[in-house]
Amino acid sequence: MLQHASLVLRDGTTLDDLVMRDTNEVSLRVMTDEELYHHEMERIFSKTWLLLGHESEIPKAGDFIVRDMAEDNVIVARDRDGSVNVSLNVCPHRGMRVCLGEAGNKPIHQCIYHGWAFRPNGDFIGAPVEKEKMHGNNVDKATLNLKKARVHLYGGLIFATWNVDGPSFDEYLGDIKYYMDQLFCRTDNGLELLGPPQRFVLPCNWKVPGEQSGSDGFHTLTLHRSLMEGGIMGGTAETIYDQAPGMYGVDVSCEQGHSLRCLEAEKTFKMFADVPFEGKSTRERLELLTPPGITREMIPQLFRNLSEDQVEQLATIPPQVGGMFPNILIAFIFAPRTDGGSSGALSLHTYVPKGPDKVEFINYIFAEKDAPEEMKRDMLQNAIWNTGTSGMIEQDDADVWPVIMKNARGAVSKGITLKYQALHGHERPDGWKGEGLLYPGFTKDDTQWNWWMAYYNLMAKA
Amino acid sequence: MTWITKSTAAPDATTIVRGLVSKARVPVGSPVYNALLETLYDEAAALDERRFDDWTAMLAEDLIYQAPIRLTRTGKTRDLDVMRTMFHFDETHESIMMRTGRLQKSAWAEDPPSRCRRFVTNVRVGECDTAGEYEVVSYLFLERSRGDSPENETATAERRDVWRDVDGAYKLARREIIVDQSVLGMSNFAVFL
Q1: Domain A50-162's class?
Q2: What pLDDT digit, counting tens, does each position of A367-396 carry?
Q3: CATH fold of B51-179, please?
Q4: How far is A409 from chain B (nearest CA, A)?
């Protein structure tokens, strides 16, 4: 018997009417509903861990970037003690933004309105004309700090949450950590961001790209058929649905809603390594086809930073695309170049809600810090050509998403349901080493349904 | 003209370069100026009318075509806002051919196509050090109508070009598109600027 949730909208619609756990359907209405959006801001975006950037953006004391936790603008700053701090960019005096730039270095952030000043860690320093006590006669200065979020660094990625007493980052990540580590925690010096992120706004609800980031592999065959037409994923235009390149692998997921698609390196990307892996050691496989972003010289680092089982997976059936709930997409992909080379593309997006009908797409592009400059240059181009603003893969996504939201407004259309009924069910492949919910074979709806279950579980709690 | 690309997240002095660098101006109304202006108009028409073969015929083999991102900055860094470390476009002749080739196939982002109107103004021209090459700076205003939406998506930008005289016709050798938005209001750049 399913436990029913407490969320009820003004017209009497319940969360169970919107997310139908018995039939694996979701009402299209959720893709535009304003009332639901306000609940999401409180129950999801004020509660869960959110990605704000990467440590390499703020290497020195006083360095800062300004980012958004949904519609709350925050300062992400490095303090003198080396710590990374996230504080609400709202002056507790009269509500002005304290920091107006997007990136830079400041030992002190002073509000331009009345001059209240704050340290990089959000601590209140004072108001001008100290002797007049313009911050109040009987107020403890510590109560006038910028509101501070809880921060966690994972592989250099900066996460923050307003849920100070909530789950730890590791609890939030769950069983997917074993697989995420293979992407974010595999080298001695880690990843670096190649530049400030691309940013653009789409007229669309955040959940449209959000649910796709729950490892929707199937859409690639049709929406991204130009990849096959261009020979990038193997096969030809005529054989797309027969051969279904990139569809077979192991989708991994967890109840927290995160997921990754692990694809056999040798099968899916034959054009890079038309050599059978059978009988070859992990190291030999890595030498034949280095994972995206990794050079042959960096292979020993993988063994130092990951377990033997993790390296074996990375060499054989690496995680390539997926996401973290609620709004992160990961694409660490093999990317061929027109000149024959391949050094991969490492992109990561956040889909930041900006109202029920707007989402900001932020595209972070990475390389391993130890990669040679030429390779970084190469990977930057690969990522720009395939992902983000002008990316040949993702410009097609940006075309679909707003239309789905538009449809959700129709009196009749909003009653249509999104269907997640092509389910495989959890099944552990022979010899599989990692934990989590596992879906071997053709990519199906399981991981995306887990995304909706994570959504349901948070929305059910006031 | 400087065309520096460094893969680092840190801004530097190259983030300030804008506009015309050449000191040898080609005056408005001179034969070379008129021919280049006509070339810009022809290029805009080729792109608006989706005649991509005509457009790519105007591109030099050694083309560098980039659109750096912009940042909002304050204080001492207030004008260091063109980030030549990250781009919306970072193209070569080959990658442009790949993009225009894709547009002939299943590129849903432009099928149905958007209806575009490129307005090119404020054209300033200077001579480059290499004979037959001209630095051409222009403003671009792009109006883009998509599907059944009555609201156009728009983009404004400064374009810093180098056009090369090849047997009497001008070929685009360099283009830097300095967009004005730090957060683009256009949902993708499936069109060229």
Answers
A1: mainly beta
A2: 999 999 999 999 999 999 999 999 999 999
A3: Nuclear Transport Factor 2; Chain: A, (3.10.450)
A4: 15
